[in-house]
Amino acid sequence: ARPKGTTDEIWAHIQKGEVVRGMTEDEVRLSIGQPDKKAKSKTGKHDWVYTLRHVIIKYDAKGKVSGIIKG
Questions:
Q1: Distance CA 12, CA 49 (A)
Q2: Burial class of residue 55, CB neighbours in 10 A (0-12, 13-18, 19+)
Q3: Is the pLDDT of residue 12 over 90?
Q4: Tell me, what DSSP letter sits at residue 17?
Q5: Which residues does residue 40 pair with via DSSP β-bridges, in sequence order?
Q6: pLDDT band at 31, cuts 50/70/90?
Q7: Which residue in 34, 40, 25 sits closest to 53, CA to CA?
Q8: Structure-derived torsion over alpha carbons of residues 14, 19, 20, 21, reported in degrees to the nearest 10
Q9: Phi, psi for residue 25 in degrees, rounded to 5
Q10: Termini Cα distance of the chain
């Protein structure tokens, strides 16, 4: 189900299994599932690691995607 407050643009990415800047944790979970690992810093920023996808999702202190590292 579409989370409350999710824009049409973000919802379209979720339906394609994509992650983009500005997504919330709930939106990322809907798009690509639970992370394999979570890492948190003292500043409130945190990363979600998806081992099989070779992706790290970086979050800002507000819990929104600030970066995507593919490797």
A1: 23
A2: middle
A3: yes
A4: T
A5: 46
A6: very high
A7: 34
A8: 120
A9: -60, -45
A10: 30
CA dihedral 70, 15, 4, 58 (to 10 degrees): 0
- pLDDT over 70 percentage in the chain: 100
Give residue for tokens 């990363």. 47
What sign has the CA pseudo-torsion 32, 34, 38, 44? positive
The pTM score is 0.92
DSSP class of residue 2? P
Sign for the pseudo-dihedral over CA of 60, 63, 69, 71 = positive
